[in-house]
């Protein structure tokens, strides 16, 4: 009776086949992983915009979204209710933290263009519309471009406070410009 098991040549053939399959699949897996990082970051930001808007409506008062460090969105962002009478556009002592997002993965970058260039922030008033820091009746709009390994996703915020994600590779109306004028003024399909 022959003992059960595999011979050394059989094991080497199986290992060679597994090695070839792994070598063929790893580059595709890396591209898939990077694409998911890009999509997750854009979706997380869109979620933060929607959270800020819904919280402002629920509370009937201003709620802000701003970079955690006060300047770079890549370093994370916070949704917060600014304490009454506070003109600071960044989260600080006395503000109520609603949500905080960590830094983006290495290599993932963001470019931003906003109608109010005084500071990186988005504020919603109690009726769910964007506002700038000077007046609750003056809207704030803009876009955030997420880029990683030549791929991009764009989060666009319209003057009424509604946001959407688009892919410039698939959507001709989805493009990032340094001019934050409302889309209807640039002969682009409205947001």
Give helix % range.
25-40%
Strand order of the largest sheet: 3-2-1-5-6
Question: What integer value in Å does the Rg equal?
Answer: 23 Å
The CA-CA distance between the termini, in Å, is: 76 Å
Percent strand: 15-25%
What best-fitting shape do the alpha-carbon axes yield? Answer: elongated
Number of helices: 1
Could you list the spans in which at least 5 consecutive residues all have pLDDT below 50? Answer: 182-191
* Strand element count: 9
Question: How would you characterize the largest beta sheet?
Answer: 5 strands, antiparallel
Q: Can I get a quick summary?
A:
The protein is α+β, with helices and mostly antiparallel strands and 191 residues long. The chain has one helix at 8-59, and strands spanning 63-67, 77-81, 96-101, 109-114, 122-124, 130-131, 142-148, 151-157, 163-166.
Q: How does the SSE layout of this entry go?
A:
Blueprint: H1 8-59, E1 63-67, E2 77-81, E3 96-101, E4 109-114, E5 122-124, E6 130-131, E7 142-148, E8 151-157, E9 163-166
Antiparallel strand pairs: 1-2, 1-5, 2-3, 4-7, 5-6, 7-8, 8-9
Q: What does this 3D model show about the protein?
A:
The protein has 191 residues and is α+β, with helices and mostly antiparallel strands. The chain is 27% helix and 24% strand. The chain is built from 1 helix and 9 strands. The strands form 2 sheets. The chain has a 5-stranded antiparallel β-sheet with strand order 3-2-1-5-6, covered by helices on one side. The longest helix has 52 residues, at 8-59. 28% of the residues are buried. Mean pLDDT is 85; it is low at 182-191.
């Amino acid at each position: 009776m022959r003992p059960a098991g595999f011979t050394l040549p059989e094991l080497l053939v199986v290992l060679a086949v597994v090695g070839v399959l792994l070598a063929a699949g790893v580059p595709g897996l890396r591209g898939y992983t990077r694409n998911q990082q890009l999509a997750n970051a854009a979706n997380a930001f869109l979620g933060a915009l929607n959270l800020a808007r819904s919280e402002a409506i629920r509370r009937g008062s201003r709620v802000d979204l701003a970079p955690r460090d006060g300047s770079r969105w890549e370093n994370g962002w916070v949704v917060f209710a600014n304490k009454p009478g506070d003109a600071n556009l960044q989260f600080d002592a006395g503000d109520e933290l609603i949500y905080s997002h960590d830094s983006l993965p290495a290599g993932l970058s963001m470019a931003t263009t906003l109608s109010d260039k005084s500071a990186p922030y988005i504020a919603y008033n109690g009726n769910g519309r964007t506002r700038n820091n000077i007046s609750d009746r003056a809207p704030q709009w803009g876009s955030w471009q997420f880029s990683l390994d030549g791929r991009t996703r764009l989060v666009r915020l319209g003057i009424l406070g509604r946001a959407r994600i688009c892919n410039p590779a698939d959507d001709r109306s989805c493009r990032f410009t340094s001019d934050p004028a409302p889309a209807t003024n640039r002969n682009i399909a409205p947001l």
